[in-house]
Amino acid sequence: MVYVIDSHTLNKNENHSQLRPNEEKRMQTDTDPELEQYYNSLIDIFLTEGWKSLLEDFTESEESLRDLVTCKTEKELHYRQGQLDIIGKLLRFEDGIKNSYEDFVNDSRL
């Protein structure tokens, strides 16, 4: 699936850093305007340096938290598992939104 953002196209698994921050970044669809605005807002977030920095920070945190040997009690282990679950959800959020958008566009064509 390719995402159209003004005159640029992004492949689903492509790094978005090639777009300059001052360029308009909007998905163009013939679908529900409210849902389109929702996806456009999220894509705007995904293309910011802040989002990229956040993902880098969480990726580093996830790597250090994966060392479960340091957990001394069952309570610490469960807490660590919860941390890893939340970080994992954040790291997968962008792909999940893009997959959701792709499904919506495909369903609207039926």
Would you kindly provide a written description of the structure presented here, covering whatever features stand out?
- This protein is mainly alpha-helical and 110 residues long.
- It has one domain.
- Helix content is 60%, strand content 7%.
- The protein is built from three helices and two strands; from the N terminus they run E-E-H-H-H.
- Strands 1-2 form a two-stranded antiparallel sheet.
- The protein is elongated.
- It starts with a strand and ends with a helix.
- The N terminus is likely disordered.
What attributes does this structure have?
two-stranded antiparallel sheet; 2 strands; mainly alpha; 110 residues; disordered N terminus
**What is the residue-mean pLDDT, rounded to a whole number?**
78
Question: Would you tell me the structural class of the helices and strands?
Answer: mainly alpha
* Count of distinct structural domains: 1
Q: What's the oligomerization state?
A: single chain
Distance between the amino and carboxyl termini: 17 Å
In which order are the strands of the major sheet placed?
Answer: 1-2
- What's the tally of helices? 3
**Beta-strand share of residues:** 5-15%
Considering DSSP H and I runs of 4 or more, what fraction of the residues is helical? 55-70%
Alpha-carbon Rg, integer: 17 Å
Largest sheet: 2 strands, antiparallel
Molecular shape: elongated
Contiguous runs where pLDDT drops below 50 for at least 5 residues: 1-26
Total strands: 2
Element-level helix/strand string: EEHHH
